C-alpha cells in the first residue's frame, strides 16, 4: 500500500469535513479568480489563442494535484514557460497560426513525456545541474525580455517598431496600461490577498465598453469561445521540425521544473515533510500531457499563485480542486465578460509579477560570495539577452560554465601542509605562518575524495615537497576528509607508498575511514612493514613521530 500511495498521492488526501471544505473553498476561490485573467495574459505572451491560457489552468491543474507530491502548488501557464514557448517557436511559425499551436502542443507533449520518464526512473537529481547563480541570472534576463515584449501594449503602441519610431500611439490604451499597473501595485501593497486582478479586469472591461474603446481602434481581447476544450491531436510535424524542438523541449523541461522546485520546497518545508522531486516530475509531466491534449501550451507551477494559495490558508489539495471549479465556471459562463478588456491591461497583469524577478542586488551579493560564480551569472544574463529569441543558449552556456568550474575545482583539490595553531587545531601552515609540526616531517591534508580527479594532485604535492626538502623522513597524511576512494585513487596511493619506501620515508596515515581502508587493503596497499603506520588521531601520530616511531604498524580502531 505505501508503494501505491507513492504513485497515487491522492489516496493520502484527508477526508474533508465542513470546516476544512470552507477553508479550502476560500483559498481555491482566491487563486481561481487570479488564474483566469493571468492565463489569458500568459497565452498572449506565448503567442497562443487567448482561451488556451484558461485551458492550461483547467485539466492540467487537476491532473497535477492528483499525481504530484506537492498538493498545494498552483499549476497552469506561467510567464517564464510561456516566454520560452514564444521565443522557441518564433523562428518556426507565425504566432497564433494553426502551425504555431501544433508546435506548442508538441512542446507540451514532448516535455511532458520527458518529465514522466525522468520521474519514473528516479532521475530527478539530473535537474540539479543548473546551480542557483545560473538560474538567477537566466530568470532575471528572461524577466527583462518579458517586460520588453509587453512595453508596446502597455504604452499604447502596436509593436516594438512602432514604439521605437514613436508612431501609432493610442492615448486611451496608454492610460489603461499605466493605470492598471498603478492600481495593481497599490492593491498589492495594501491588500495582498485581495483578488485585485479580477476586479481590475472587470472594471477595465466596463470602462472600455462605456468609452467605446474598441470602436476607437483600441486593442481588446475580443470574443473567446465558451465551453470545455476538445481533445486535440497535433499533426506530425516532420523529423526536421521535431529535431528543432529538441533543445526547446529540454529547456522547458528544465526551467519549468526549477520553477516547481522553488515552490515545492516552500510547501514541503511548511508541511514538515521531505520533498519528493521524482513524484513531482511525474505529476508535472502528466499535467503537460493533459495541457497538450487539450490544445494548450506547456504548464508549470506558478510561484506567485502558489504563494497566494498558501497565504489564503490552503491546507490540502482540496483548495486546488476548488480553484479548478472556479476556472471551469469562468470558462462556461464568464467568457463574454472578457471581450472588452484592453490588451494594455493584460500587459500590466504580466509585467507586475515579472518585475519582482529583477533583483540587481542579487548580483552584488553573489559577487561578495564568489566572484567566479558572479562572472558566470553575468555571462549567463548577457548571453540570454543577446541570444533572444533562442533563450536556451543562455541556460546552456551557464550550465557549461558552471560545470567547467566544478570540474576545475575537482581536479585541483585543496591540499595543505598543516601546522599547530595556538588554539590547538591543525591549520594551513603557510596561511597562518606556523612552524612545522616536527623536524623533517611533511604533514598534509587533502580536503577531497581520493579518486581519478584528485589522485595526481596528491602525488604531485608529495613529490614537490620531497624535491624541495630531500631530507624529509616522515610524511603524515591526515585522511579524515577522504571519505571516498576509487580504483585510480588506490593505484595512486600504491605508487606513492612505493616511492616513499624507495626513499626510506615513513608514511603515517591518520584517521583513515573504514570504506577507504577496505579498498586499500583489498588492493594490497596496506600490507605491514616498518615504514607504514596507522593512527586514529593526529596526537597519536605526532607522539609516535616525536619518539622516532619505526615500530610495527599500529592497528587503531577507525569509523
UniProtKB/TrEMBL annotation:
<feature type="transmembrane region" description="Helical">
    <location>
        <begin position="340"/>
        <end position="358"/>
    </location>
</feature>
<feature type="transmembrane region" description="Helical">
    <location>
        <begin position="75"/>
        <end position="94"/>
    </location>
</feature>
<dbReference type="GO" id="GO:0055085">
    <property type="term" value="P:transmembrane transport"/>
</dbReference>
<keyword id="KW-0472">Membrane</keyword>
<feature type="transmembrane region" description="Helical">
    <location>
        <begin position="100"/>
        <end position="121"/>
    </location>
</feature>
<dbReference type="InterPro" id="IPR011547">
    <property type="entry name" value="SLC26A/SulP_dom"/>
</dbReference>
<feature type="transmembrane region" description="Helical">
    <location>
        <begin position="169"/>
        <end position="187"/>
    </location>
</feature>
<feature type="domain" description="STAS">
    <location>
        <begin position="444"/>
        <end position="545"/>
    </location>
</feature>
<protein>
    <submittedName>
        <fullName>SulP family inorganic anion transporter</fullName>
    </submittedName>
</protein>
<feature type="transmembrane region" description="Helical">
    <location>
        <begin position="370"/>
        <end position="387"/>
    </location>
</feature>
<dbReference type="InterPro" id="IPR001902">
    <property type="entry name" value="SLC26A/SulP_fam"/>
</dbReference>
<feature type="transmembrane region" description="Helical">
    <location>
        <begin position="194"/>
        <end position="212"/>
    </location>
</feature>
<keyword id="KW-1133">Transmembrane helix</keyword>
<feature type="transmembrane region" description="Helical">
    <location>
        <begin position="310"/>
        <end position="334"/>
    </location>
</feature>
<dbReference type="GO" id="GO:0016020">
    <property type="term" value="C:membrane"/>
</dbReference>
<dbReference type="InterPro" id="IPR002645">
    <property type="entry name" value="STAS_dom"/>
</dbReference>
<feature type="transmembrane region" description="Helical">
    <location>
        <begin position="133"/>
        <end position="157"/>
    </location>
</feature>
<feature type="transmembrane region" description="Helical">
    <location>
        <begin position="50"/>
        <end position="68"/>
    </location>
</feature>
<dbReference type="Pfam" id="PF01740">
    <property type="entry name" value="STAS"/>
</dbReference>
<dbReference type="Pfam" id="PF00916">
    <property type="entry name" value="Sulfate_transp"/>
</dbReference>
<feature type="transmembrane region" description="Helical">
    <location>
        <begin position="393"/>
        <end position="411"/>
    </location>
</feature>
<keyword id="KW-0812">Transmembrane</keyword>
<dbReference type="InterPro" id="IPR036513">
    <property type="entry name" value="STAS_dom_sf"/>
</dbReference>
<feature type="transmembrane region" description="Helical">
    <location>
        <begin position="242"/>
        <end position="261"/>
    </location>
</feature>
Amino acid at each position: 500500500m505505501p508503494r501505491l500511495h507513492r504513485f497515487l498521492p491522492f489516496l493520502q488526501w484527508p477526508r474533508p469535513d465542513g470546516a476544512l471544505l470552507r477553508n479550502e473553498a476560500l483559498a481555491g476561490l482566491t487563486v481561481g479568480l487570479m488564474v483566469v485573467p493571468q492565463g489569458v495574459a500568459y497565452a498572449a505572451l506565448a503567442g497562443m489563442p487567448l482561451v488556451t491560457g484558461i485551458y492550461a489552468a483547467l485539466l492540467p491543474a487537476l491532473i497535477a494535484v492528483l499525481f504530484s507530491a506537492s498538493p498545494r502548488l498552483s499549476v497552469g501557464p506561467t510567464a517564464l514557460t510561456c516566454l520560452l514557448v514564444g521565443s522557441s517557436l518564433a523562428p518556426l511559425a507565425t504566432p497564433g497560426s494553426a502551425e504555431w499551436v501544433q508546435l506548442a502542443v508538441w512542446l507540451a507533449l514532448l516535455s511532458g513525456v520527458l518529465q514522466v520518464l525522468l520521474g519514473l526512473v528516479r532521475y530527478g537529481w539530473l535537474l540539479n545541474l543548473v546551480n542557483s547563480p545560473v538560474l538567477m541570472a537566466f530568470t532575471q534576463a528572461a524577466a527583462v525580455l518579458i517586460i520588453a515584449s509587453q512595453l508596446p501594449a502597455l504604452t499604447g503602441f502596436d509593436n516594438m517598431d512602432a514604439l521605437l519610431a514613436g508612431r501609432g500611439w493610442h492615448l486611451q490604451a496608454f492610460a489603461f496600461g499605466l493605470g492598471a499597473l498603478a492600481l495593481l501595485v497599490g492593491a498589492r501593497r495594501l491588500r495582498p490577498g485581495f483578488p485585485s486582478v479580477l476586479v481590475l479586469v472587470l472594471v477595465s472591461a466596463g470602462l472600455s465598453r462605456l468609452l467605446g474603446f474598441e470602436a476607437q481602434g483600441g486593442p481588446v481581447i475580443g470574443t473567446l469561445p465558451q465551453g470545455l476544450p476538445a481533445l486535440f491531436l497535433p499533426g506530425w510535424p516532420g523529423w526536421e521540425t521535431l529535431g528543432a524542438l529538441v533543445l526547446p523541449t529540454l529547456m522547458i523541461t528544465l526551467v519549468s521544473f526549477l520553477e516547481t522546485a522553488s515552490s515545492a520546497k516552500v510547501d514541503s518545508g511548511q508541511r514538515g515533510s521531505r520533498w519528493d522531486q521524482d513524484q513531482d516530475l511525474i505529476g508535472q509531466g502528466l499535467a503537460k500531457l493533459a495541457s497538450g491534449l487539450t490544445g494548450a501550451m506547456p504548464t508549470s507551477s506558478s510561484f506567485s499563485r502558489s504563494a497566494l494559495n498558501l497565504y489564503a490558508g490552503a491546507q490540502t489539495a482540496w483548495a486546488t480542486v476548488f480553484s479548478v471549479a472556479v476556472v471551469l465556471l469562468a470558462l462556461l459562463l464568464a467568457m463574454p465578460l472578457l471581450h472588452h478588456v484592453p490588451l494594455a491591461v493584460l500587459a500590466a497583469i504580466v509585467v507586475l509579477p515579472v518585475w519582482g524577478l529583477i533583483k540587481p542586488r542579487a548580483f552584488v551579493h553573489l559577487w561578495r560570495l564568489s566572484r567566479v560564480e558572479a562572472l558566470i551569472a553575468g555571462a549567463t544574463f548577457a548571453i540570454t539577452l543577446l541570444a533572444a529569441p533562442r533563450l536556451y543558449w543562455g541556460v546552456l552556456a551557464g550550465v557549461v560554465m558552471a560545470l567547467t568550474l566544478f570540474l576545475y575545482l575537482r581536479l585541483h583539490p585543496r591540499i595543505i601542509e598543516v601546522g599547530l595553531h595556538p588554539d590547538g587545531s591543525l591549520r594551513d601552515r603557510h596561511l597562518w605562518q606556523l612552524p612545522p609540526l616536527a623536524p623533517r616531517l611533511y604533514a598534509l591534508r587533502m580536503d577531497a575524495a581520493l579518486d581519478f580527479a584528485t589522485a595526481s594532485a596528491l602525488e604531485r604535492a608529495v613529490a614537490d615537497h620531497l624535491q624541495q626538502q630531500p631530507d624529509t623522513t616522515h610524511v603524515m597524511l591526515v585522511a579524515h576528509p577522504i571519505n571516498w576512494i576509487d580504483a585510480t585513487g588506490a593505484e595512486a596511493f600504491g605508487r606513492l607508498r612505493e616511492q616513499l619506501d624507495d626513499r626510506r620515508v615513513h608514511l603515517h596515515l591518520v584517521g583513515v575511514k573504514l570504506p577507504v581502508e577496505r579498498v586499500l587493503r583489498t588492493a594490497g596497499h596496506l600490507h605491514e612493514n616498518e615504514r607504514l603506520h596507522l593512527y586514529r588521531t593526529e596526537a597519536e601520530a605526532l607522539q609516535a613521530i616525536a619518539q622516532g616511531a619505526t615500530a610495527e604498524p599500529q592497528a587503531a580502531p577507525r569509523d
